Amino acid sequence: MAEENSNALSTHIDMKKLWELLSIVVVTVIIWNLPTSTFGIDGLTVVQQRIIAIFVFATLSWLTECIPAWATSLSIMTIMCVTVSKNAFGVFKHDGVGDLLDSKEIMASFADPIIMLFLAGFILAIAASKSGLDTLLARNLIKPFGKKSENVLLGFLLITGLFSMFISNTATAALMLTFLTPVFAALPATGKGRIALTLSIPVAANLGGMGTPIGTPPNLIALKYLNDPAGLNMNIDFFHWMAFMTPLVIILLIISWRIILHFYPFTQKTIHLKIDGEVHRGWRMWVVIITFIITILLWVIPKDVTGIDTNTVSMLPMGIFAITGVITAKDLQEINWSVIWMVAGGFAIGLGMNGSGLADAAIESIPFGNWSPIAILAISGLICYFLSNFISNTATAALLVPILAVVCRGMGDKLGGIGGTSTILIGIAIAASTAMCLPISTPPNAIAYSTGLVKQNEMLKVGLTCGLISLILGYLLLYFIGQIHFIG
User: Fold this and answer.
1) SS3 for the chain, per residue?
2) CA-based torsion, 477, 437, 122, 402: positive or negative
């Protein structure tokens, strides 16, 4: 029998997803054509109403996943270009529709400087994998933890967390579970040690991603709005983010270590660990090592000293690895472009809200100033945590951050008591990374669950406990720092 061509067009139709998509289109069309007075926003223009309809389409599509999340983001940008831009079809550009957007700016969402920072993270991960730098680091970093089972578990938590700060948490989880394969063979089949080690990987990968701006997409989405020159313009760089997040991540990983040991203690007291893997010995290995060191140093050293910002630094590893042949055209296929499209789609929604004047109109019409800042902080965090357990944390952040940026602008100085808008938006990044209850919650969870070594209820128990404690501690620390700034 001839093998089926995996590149052939599929003829399969998922009727459930089709009906969901059709229902979402109907709802979108209805909102698109409602009288503008329905929305209760004074002076709402036709373009702004279309942005609301597009936002509803994006929200429902991301929630139901009737089409892939990246396809939703691509649809957002396509619909915006052809209906609310200056180069839209003529039927959408009649007099009195309101301020149309620049189509170049919509398309530029995919090449935003933050996207370049994200791409640098992917490129560094590919280079580390090809050169064997990741194996070399793991092999040497685990040695100080010795052979005691509990200490080896802590070692895997901390090393996985460290890797996730600079490498995709999905790639990190896959890599670290590969290193654990020979360890499982030496552990008792009926013991809890296998469960503990397996669960340590997704927990550490999820929490570790909070440590740097490139660790996970929600960080970059929050940073985009925090540093927007036309918005908050807070100039939060790589160093400032790490100065707050890295100590928090270390504390959370140590707490998670004790939680995992509480639920799944080792019966075998020692583990003889041997990490195998090929390490490249040629000159390109030195190119990778030196480029890693230079890139991270330039990210961490403040811009005032170097004169170069974080986003521009991200171009260095891409350029160096391309010129030296460390990265080839084939390697670029390994980049998770679907995640980049998702992030870009979120940026496009934010552009639509601000560029069309919808954000300003909403601020003037809705009494955000009467809302409690603590209530906004708590409710937004809980909504993000809940949604991120069921849909992509990137999609969740892409939905919530633009809305919260508008809400926070409307609340003005009232947010000073909790540290300002930055507390709310950074809180979303924390909430998104702490959502790890289910196998579907994050890719690292799915990878760990696919090993067959953990059951869903075991992942739920550890993920819920570690996640909620991390969420609460993260928000308490945010609030505490906000209070210090407010009093100061």
Assistant:
1) CCCCCCCCCCCCCCHHHHHHHHHHHHHHHHHHHCCHHHHCCCCCCHHHHHHHHHHHHHHHHHHHCCCCHHHHHHHHHHHHHHHCECCCCHHHCCCCCCCCECHHHHHHHHHCHHHHHHHHHHHHHHHHHHHCHHHHHHHHHCHHHCCEHHHHHHHHHHHHHHHHHHCCHHHHHHHHHHHHHHHHHHCCCCCCHHHHHHHHHHHHHHHHHHHCCCCCHHHHHHHHHHCCCCCCCCCCCHHHHHHHHHHHHHHHHHHHHHHHHHHCCCCCCECCCCCCCCCCCCHHHHHHHHHHHHHHHHHHCCHHHHCCCHHHHCHHHHHHHHHHCCCCCCHHHHCCHHHHHHHHHHHHHHHHHHHCCHHHHHHHHCCHHHCCHHHHHHHHHHHHHHHHCCCCHHHHHHHHHHHHHHHHHHHHHHHHHHCCHHHHHHHHHHHHHHCCCCCCCCHHHHHHHHCCCCCHHHHHHHHHHHHHHHHHHHHHHHHHHHHHHHHC
2) negative
Distance CA 331, CA 237 (A): 29
Between CA 273 and CA 278, with CA 277 as vertex, the angle to 5 degrees is: 150
Kindly report, residue by residue over 223-259, the tens digit of the pLDDT: 988 888 777 778 888 888 998 899 999 999 999 999 9
- Tell me the pTM: 0.82
- Let me know the angle formed at the C-alpha of 91 by 38 and 62, rounded to the nearest 5 degrees: 55
CA distance 447 to 202: 8
Answer yes or no: are the C-beta atoms of 58 and 399 closer than 8 Å: yes
Q: Which of 98-102, 109-113, 132-136 has the highest mean pLDDT?
A: 98-102
Question: 458 and 199 in contact (C-beta within 8 Å)?
Answer: yes
Contact 397, 346 (CB under 8 A): yes
pLDDT of 479 above 60: yes
Query: Whose structure tokens read 């925090």?
Result: 226
